[in-house]
Amino acid sequence: SIPSAPSLPNPNPSTHARAHLPAAGAAAMDVAESPDLQAQLAAAVHALNHASHPSARLAANQWLLGLQRSPHAWALAVSLLASADHPSPSADLLFFAAQMLRRKIQSPDYSLPDNAAQLLDALLVAARRFCLAPPRLLTQICLALAALALRAEGGVDGLFARMPHLPDPALLELLTVLPEEVAQDESGDTGVDSATRCRFARELLMHAPAVLEFLLAQSEKPAAADGVPLHERNHRILRCLLSWVRAGCFSGAPASALAAHPLLTFAFNSLQAFFSFEVAIEVMTELVSQYQELPQAFLSKMPYIREVLLLPALANRSEKIIAGLTSLMCEVGQAAPGLVAEGSNEALSLSDALLRCVAFSSEDWEIAESTLQFWCSLAHCILGIDEQTSKRNATQELFLPVFSSLLDALLFRAQIIDIDEHCTGRVSSIPDGLVQFRLNLEELLVDICLLLGAPAYINKLLSSGWGLASQSIPWKEVEVRMYALSMVADTILQDGSPFDFSVVMHFVNILSSRTPAELNGCQFLVYKSFGDVIGSYSKWLSSSKSNIKPLLLFCASGISKSISSNSCSVALRKLCEDASSFIHEPPILDILFWISEGMGEGNLRIEDEEEIISAITHALCSILDKELRKTSLARLLCSSYSAVEKIIDIDRDELLRQNSSAYAQALNIAVRGLHRMGALFSHLAMSITSGLIDDDTISVLFGIFWPLLEKLTQSSHMENTSLSTAACRSLSSAIHSCGQHFQILLPKILECLSMNFLLYQRHDCFLRTAANMIEEFGHKEEYSVVCVRTIETFSSAASLSNLNSSYTCDQEPDLIEAYANFTSAFIRCCPKEAIVASRSLLELSFQKAAICSTAMHQGAALVAISYMSCFFDASLTDVLESPECPSDESRGAVLVQILARCGEGLMFNVFYALLGVSALSRVHKSATMLQKLAALCSLCERTMWKGILCWDSLCGWLQTTVSSLSSEYLRQGEAELIIPLWLKVLQDAASDYLHSRTGDNCRNHPGYMQGKGGRTLKRVIRDFAESHRNVPTPYIDSRWSCRQQLS
Predict the structure, then answer these.
(1) Could you give the CA distance from residue 444 to residue 987 in angstroms, rounded to a whole number?
(2) Which one, of 199, 219, 212, 262, lies nearest residue 241 by Cα?
(3) What DSSP designation does 782 have?
(4) Distance CA 989, CA 999 (A)
(5) Of 217, 570, 613, 711, which has the fewest Cβ atoms less than 10 A away?
């Protein structure tokens, strides 16, 4: 246990910001009090580091934080570090004292002592005292010195003036950490502005020549001259040199002098010392990246690096050395790819060395992956030379063997090693590193294909002399070559060179003839790569009729495993699209139906099943015989029918319902069946548009689909979210393709959707599907009553009634989106009679949208703003079409009246939506909406609509809103500036909008935000959001919104 926390002397309120630190060694506190405080500090530090109970460590931490905040911490820490007491305090206590000083110096919450020079002297005493102490203590003392030099007036010069008194180990460490303050992360070191940091950098670099002289002298010292082992001293010299290189110590140095600098030679020679190898690599990599003159000098050293350093490291499998040298060589090559492309002996030595690094086999792929950017840079450099010049031909000819060998090395490293062995067949069977390596290879493989030429690239991949017997095929080689072939498909197709697919078809025939029992898990990775090839080159592969059957059988085999199902299902769809001239022949159709019937087991992803159904639907739509086409499509639809029918039957069989496992399985199969039906109807919509499907076929499919779906929507299974979503999605797809057949069912369907929503109010799919129905048929006047009844039913739901605060909006973003989409469709599509009859509900929906625009959830806020913009669009359209004020029974009058009543609440919520961290994402939509609002008010001002809405309305809303914003959100005097500025930019933006909506401008300038006024409005709103992003985000509810009409 630790002692109870002592009572720290409370600082005088008037002087606590600046503690007075006397000279080192003098008493800063009462002499009788200091030993007790030091003892308590020692006990607290010991408890923090060594106590077994968490509560003891927590208590110690709280006490130490309190001590650190106290002004007495300065003197206490200095007395521990600088006094020569014997015995010396413990290492933990000394480290804490140094760390506490560093934190107090760095923190903007504490001011430096009045006499910072004395604190500097005390820290230098500590650095001398502990120059051979554990490194972490000396580092903390030096960090405190560096932080003090950054903040104190004349700190750099004062520090350098005192440095000669420091022992070499302490001086090396101090010089190492000083430049790090130049690039110190300001997020972790607040209180120092950029100007101060730039001044510090300039003052520091004035001493760079002296520092480099010191480092050179240190590098020439004999072993153990200062009690530090030679390898350790060299490591420290390189660390220090690295810090100064990063700070720019060689800036302005002539290229010849820099290349021949003794410290550069010292760093290069340090590559042969294992202890200093990594930091030497960092030094040279930093130099190459900063100074464009150096790559030439380093390129001349490549033969030495290759022969003396790299080849032995490869032979000894020293991955640390190989990785470091690879990094350096890549940096040299990327810094000057033009030099490498000249093809000198040194450049070819660099290329050969990096080829060996790519081919080096290790447990991960980091070494090979680190070279990819260099090879891309070199390839781009060569390809960038003018094609017509002899230089391009000579360079390309010189590097063809290099890139050919590179392709071999990449294929070797990209192999899946255990593909011929037994494995699980999951995607996770492939190491994450290999997956990432393959993803990053695409750009380089395309470059290699361009350099070698498409025919040579293809020939290299497909001419490996594999045996014809399937037992002797090295599948891991085949798989990686198919992967490399699929990655460059666009390049090869664009090239258009002849392509002999006989090798591909040979393997396709072997794979399509295998039964699942003959395949282990990882061999399905071969199916995946072949599936990608088939999908990429389907147009060429399907040009031969003899290829179609084996290709379809191959896809059927690959679809059966999850790892290859996506690539094979996509390949199937592309084959059916590209082979439409003979895909509808009976033997081919039999295979397609066999594939579709195999989906009933539910082993595939829903997305893959939809791809398969789309493929088969496309094939069936190309059947020339109308009767056969109709029966075939009905057969395909019925293959999913039984899955849905079974779940309906469960309603009549309580035993099945009580078996949770069987019921869950039946639900899953039904959901998949519904998705497949939706995919079929989605594809049919395209075929109907192109005239491939006649009305008789649609009638047959409708007669199969709707009775089944009607039963399902009336069952209790709709409680299941996945099932109801799938049912609504398939219904929406069917409505889109069979619109006229659903028209007479509109009242029944809308009633079904609205009643289901009342039962299952978290299921937003009912709202979305109702929106689709209204978009399709809502414009017909005979359905006005039905549409009104639907919006009334939806609005009565508790889930929508409860959307009265920004907090509840954050909890239901999907529901908000669906509700906004439905009401938008209602306003856009329904007749005026429906709008007039629903005015109170539309006003309520507008109020809710205004509240939702302040939600933290970005999607919910943006869709709410979009819905309000829809209000403005419809209102502006009606006012522009009828400048004379119409009767209260018109759509425009209803909408403008709603806006007039809700305008103050809208403006209030817009301002609050632009406060806090999430405001920037709303700037564009908010600016667009406000521009439309200003345009509407400006337009009404000039017409007979002025009695309902006018420019003064907008001025009043803005005045009231800004006046009501608390000082928590606005700076002093800001309110007086906002009102005239915003009114001016709103007026200009309104003119832009109205100009874009008149005459030919409506066609020529659809993007009204491009106008000068619109851009200015957006900039003003962005500036407001930027300057208020750190204010607390307000919580908005219905009591704050639309106050005029709710009060």
Answers:
(1) 54
(2) 212
(3) G
(4) 18
(5) 217
Spatial distance between the Cα atoms of 216 and 263, rounded to a whole number of angstroms: 6
CB 1008 within 8 A of CB 1014: yes
For residue 254 the two structure tokens come to: 């002539």
Per-residue CA distances from 446 to 451, 489, 813 (Å): 9, 9, 43
Q: Could you read off the pLDDT of 731-790 as tens digits, one per residue?
A: 999 888 887 778 888 899 999 999 999 999 989 999 999 999 999 898 888 889 999 999
Four-residue CA torsion sign, 603, 606, 612, 616: positive
Whether residues 524 and 645 share a domain: the answer is: no
Contacts of 903 (CB under 8 A, 6+ apart): 933, 949, 953, 954, 957
Task: Give the integer Cα–Cα distance in Å for 14 and 10.
Answer: 11
What pLDDT digit, counting tens, does each position of 197-232 carry? 888 989 999 999 999 999 999 998 876 666 678 888
Tell the residue number behind the tokens 């779940």, with chain if given: 647
* CB-based contact 413:346 (threshold 8 Å): no
d(CA 561, CA 566): 9
765, amino acid identity: C
Contact 8, 72 (CB under 8 A): yes
Q: And the tokens for 1003? A: 């066609």
What 3-state DSSP class applies to 880? helix
Q: Is residue 121 part of a domain?
A: no
641 and 714 in a common domain:
yes
Sign of CA dihedral 696, 698, 701, 705: negative
Give 195-231 as a 3 state SS string: HHHHHHHHHHHCCHHHHHHHHHHHHCCCCCCCCCCHH
Final residue in a domain of this structure, among 729, 760, 791: 760
Q: Residue length, the chain?
A: 1047
Residue 168 lies in a domain: no
State the pLDDT at residue 693: 77
**Pair 613, 649 in one domain:** no
Please give the single-letter amino acid code of residue 588.
I
Q: How far apart are CA 605 and CA 597, in angstroms?
A: 15
CA nearest to 333, candidates 366, 305, 365, 361: 305
Cα separation of 174 and 124, whole Å? 10
Q: How high is the pLDDT of residue 60?
A: 86
Phi, psi dihedral angles at 1037 (to 5 degrees): -130, -175
What domain count does the chain have?
A: 3
Please give the model's pTM, rounded to 2 decimal places: 0.77
Task: Decide if 929 contacts 865 (C-beta within 8 A).
Answer: yes
CA-to-CA dists, residue 515 to 306, 510, 524, 546, 554, angstroms: 51, 11, 12, 22, 11
Q: Is 412 domain-assigned?
A: yes
Under 8 Å between Cβ of 885 and 943: yes
Residue ranges of the chain whose pLDDT lies below 50 = 1-33, 186-189, 421-428, 1003-1009, 1039-1047
Q: What is the pLDDT of residue 918?
A: 79
Neighbours of 458 (CB within 10 A): 22
Out of 727, 745, 760, a domain closes at 760
Cβ atoms within 10 A of the Cβ of 350, count? Answer: 26
The verdict on 561 and 485 lying in the same domain is yes
Is 658 a member of any domain? yes
Using a CB cutoff of 8 Å and minimum separation of 24, what contacts does 8-13 make? Answer: 8/66, 8/67, 8/70, 8/72, 9/70, 9/72, 11/70, 11/71
What is the C-alpha separation between 450 and 445, in angstroms, rounded? 9
**Residue numbers of the domain that contains 608:** 467-622
Tell me which H or E stretch contains 392. Answer: helix 390-413
Rounded Cα distance between 416 and 480, Å, is: 8
Burial readout 577-593 (b: 16 or more C-beta within 10 A, e: otherwise):
bbbeeebbeeebbebbb
Q: Do 341 and 318 have their domain in common?
A: yes
Say if residue 511 is in the same domain as residue 571: yes
Output the pLDDT for position 876: 92
Tokens of 263: 């410290």
Question: Distances from the Cα of 676 to the Cαs of 563, 615, 633, 683, 732, in angstroms?
Answer: 21, 11, 13, 11, 13
Same domain assignment for residues 405 and 444: yes
